[in-house]
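C-alpha cells please, single chain.
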Amino acid sequence: MSSSNRARRSTARVVAPLIALLACVVQTTGIVQAQPDSMTWYVRAGAAPGGSGESGAPFDSLARVAAASRAGDTIVIQPAAAALDGGIALQPGQRLVGGGAEVVGAPEGAELPRITNTTGNIEGDAVRLAPGAEVRNLVIDGAARGGIYGHDAVDTVISGNRVTATNRGCVDGFMIGPFTLPPGIAVGVAADPLPEFIILNNGWAAIMADFSAATGRIRIEGNVVHDTACGDGIDIRAHGTSVVDARLRDNVIRDINLGLAKLSVLALGLQAGDTARLSAELVGNKQIGIAPLSSPLNHLADSEGLFINPMGRAVMDVTVHRNEFRDGHGNFSANGLEYVTTNGTPDSRVTVSDSTFEHVRGDLIESYNLSTEGARQSLTLDNVSAFHSTFPAAALNPVIPANLGSCLVTTNFGRTGSTHLEVANSRFGDCSADGIGIIGYTPTGPEPATARLTFDIRDTTVTGAAANGLAIVNVGDTAVVRGSVDRTSLSEVRGRLIDSRNSGVIGSAAVEFGSGTLDGAAVSCLAADHPRVELSAFAATCR
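Here you go.
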C-alpha cells in the first residue's frame, strides 16, 4: 500500500465515530453498505506494473487488489479490452464494481470491465462471494467453474452483470434426487414403491449460491447469463439449517448448454433440503433458448426453464410473477416449469402469475409430488399461458399419462402425500398430449392410505391438445380425489374433451362441474351428457 493510501485509511479511521453517529439519522437502502473506514481500489487488465491501486495508477491483477483490500472496501474493475484472470475471493462487505458504462446491452468489442478465471485458484470461480458483498456491472467470461459463487454468503447483491461461457471444466453442480417413479402406472396397477435410486446431475451454474447454516437474504437482479459452456444459468440451494430469502428480478438467461456427461440442465433452479427454509420471489425473469440444438449434446437434455425442488424436511415458498419462457429443447422430459418434490416430507407452495411458457419438447408446466414419504405440495396458476409442446406422444398417452408433452400436469405419487392444484384465468393449448392432466398414484402399503389430490380450475381455456382436454387419472387406494371445474372452455382436442380413469378404490371421490364451453357450445354444466366426455370413473356432480 502506498503512503498516500495508508494516510487515507488512517484519516478515515479517525473520523469513523463521527460517520457512525451521522449514519444513525440517515435512512439507508439496500443490503450492502460501505464501512465507515472503507477505501476504493482500482484495477485494470493491462495496467502498468507497480500501480498503487488509485484511479490513475490501478493495480494490474486481481491478486494484487485482493491482497491490498480489506473488508468493506470497494474494488473497481476499470474497462479494458482484455480480462483480468485468476479470480477473486471477496471479503465481508466488499463491493466489486465494474467501472464505465453498463455492460448489459453494451456493443460487442467495446472496452468493458472484464474478469475470468482460467486457473485452479478458488476452484476456478471468477468471483467468490462473502457475506454482505456486492458484485455489479461486470463481464465475466470463460471461468473454469462458476462465474459468481458463494457459500453461506448472505445479505449479498448480484446486479447488472453479463456472465457467459462458464464451467469450462464441466464440474457437477446442482444435483436432482434421489427420487423414484411409480412402477405400475403404465399398466394401471399399484405396487410397492421402488427405492429412490434416480439422481440427475447438472453442470455448475454461472451464478450459484449455496447455503447450509446461514440466515439472511440474497438479491440477484438485472443480470444476463448466456451460452454456458457446461451447465446451469442461475441456481440457489438451501440445505442444512439455513433460512434464506431470495429475490430474483429481471434476469435474462439464454442459450444454456447441457455439457459432457450431464443429464439435466436448468436455466433457473431453486432447491431446499434438510430442514432449510427458502422463500423466493421471482419477478420479470426470462428463460430463452434452453439447450439449443446447435450442440449435439443438447438433443439428450432434460432441460428446464424454471426448476423448483423441495426435498427432505424443508419449507419452501416461491412466487413467480411476469416470467417469460420460450424455446426449451432436449428430450421428452424438457419443461418450461418443473416443480417437483423428489423425496422426504417437505412443505412447499408455488404461485405463478401473469406469466407465459411457450415452445418446449415435453410438458410445459409440471407439478410433480414424487415423494413416497408424505410431502405436501401446492401449485397456484393465475393468468398463465402455456402453449406449444412438440413431443409426438399422443399415441402413448393412454399408457403413460404424464411427461410426454401435456400443457399442464400435476401428480401425487405418495401414499401419505398431499397435492393441490389451483388454476384461474389461464390459457393452455397446442400441446402434444393432454391439455391438463391430473394424476394420482398411490403405491401399496401396510397402513391405510391418506393420500390427497385436490384441484380447482376456473375461468380457463384449453384448446388444441393432441390427447384429452382434461384428464383425471387414479391408480391405487387414494384417500381423497376431489376437484371443481367452472367457467372453463374445452375445445378442438383430438381425444376426449374430459376423460377419467380409475383403477383403484378411492375413499372420497368427487368432481364438481360448473358452466363452461364444450367444443364451442355453451353448457350449464361441463359434466352434462356429451359424446366426448367420459366421467364414469368419478362421482361427477353439477353446481
